[in-house]
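It is worth pausing here to work through a concrete case rather than discussing structure prediction in the abstract. The textbook approach is simple: state the sequence, then state the predicted structure, then interpret. We follow exactly that order.
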Amino acid sequence: MLPQDKDAELRQKIANGFIVETEDDMTPGYKKALEVILTVQGDTELVSAPAYYFASKDAPTINSRLAVYAIIQDELGHANIAYRLLEDLGVSKQWLMYGRLPHEFKHPYGFDQPLENWAEMVVANGFFDRAGITLLADVHKNCSYGPWQRALTKVDREEVLHLRHGESWMKRLAKAGGAAKEALQRAVDWMFPMTLEWFGLPDHLKKHQDQLDYKLKGLTNDQLRQVWMSSTVPLCESCGLNVPAHYDEDKKEYVIDYEFPVQYDPQAKRWLFDEPITWEQVFQRWKARGPMNETYINMIQGDKTGTFGGLHWSV
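Step two, the predicted structure:
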């Protein structure tokens, strides 16, 4: 590995198009930033599996339930890819899976919420998987770490299928009208603001940009949020669904229709739009994790007292 005093030199090489292939090309700063972003990707893919599994029980047909099982299998494979890349950096996959407590996993807060019906399942595909492909497509296009960029060719194509599954079912439920559309609107009501938070701190509040300087991603948080809204808002509008955002012709961008961020009631799955909060309060909510955090991680880790259980690694 390169010494830390070579960091400025590495950043300049990357800016000029250099692709990092092995740990020998990295500085400690680059390696740390890469480990963080790979861990978030792996954990997000992993924890989506138990969330989708519960919701699949409400599938209207056996074929639609099998479609979700296929998505779950894809997500577990994507987690394995990220964790395998972390192994190359000296991080134990066994520890990643079984050595951490539930609150130590680094996935978005949205995957700590229960998905309780088919409408929530397909909106998760339409919103959460759209957020995933927004982030990973940017990485695939701009990433300076060659092994990860190449691996994302497979991941991105499969994530697009998940997204299409969600979009097609959202249109189908909206067209059905009545109770189906009402359930769809209820899912959109809590999952739209949840996904806006997914992209993180607004650009004007960010103090560090290592991931951008190292080209581990190419777009800023606000730019990624715009990419997501540019597809999601028109989709919802075409389905006759209300969302708290619109396109501003003067600004030439999508605008959030409330003071962002706001308080959230996880038990009622309801956003309190008249109660603005700071991003520090958002981070505190994320760190405390959501109502399904322990359940989902326990499903993944299995018997915590067994040979490969979580307790084995926590003592």
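Step three, interpretation. Strands lie at 245-248, 253-256, 262-265, 270-276. The two ends are 31 Å apart (CA to CA).
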